[in-house]
Amino acid sequence: MLAAAALLSGPATAVPAYSPMQFFEGRTEGIGTIRIMLGKPYRTRSIGHGRFEPDGTMEFVQKVVDDGKPPRERRWKIRQTGPHHFTGTMSEAIGLVKIEEIAGRFRFRFRMKGNLSVEQWLVPLAGGTTARNTLTIRKFGVKVGTSEGMLRKLASR
What we know:
CATH superfamily: Calycin beta-barrel core domain
Mean pLDDT: 88
Number of domains: 1
Oligomer: single chain
Strand order of the largest sheet: 1-2-3-4-5-6-7-8-9-10
Shape: globular
Number of strands: 10
């Protein structure tokens, strides 16, 4: 369901030998359940495709399908701003998305319409092809929603 970024290296190439965001390069699939206060939980699924732009920015596009809703597209553009820190944009966010790598886990923080603030954690699992995804949505500091799911890397076509 979420994000991507790239390290900046020398002028020959903007993508380093290894970037933690290389997980998002190529195809991914996210599956999860969203729970919003006073609402019925619903399933969500996304198919994403990520690529590094020449300047090292990770562009990640997801087709998102939530139960009972029409499909939509979510776009991310993320770049590394310092050791373990990334920033960028996401089409559903208001303002910047801030990402921190903390002990091998990734914390995403951003705001959305309706005075919502979102904190999302991606935790890579052993093997490097799957990550656990948890998300908390708050309004005026009060938790109003959560999401739990998995994100996995798909074989290239």
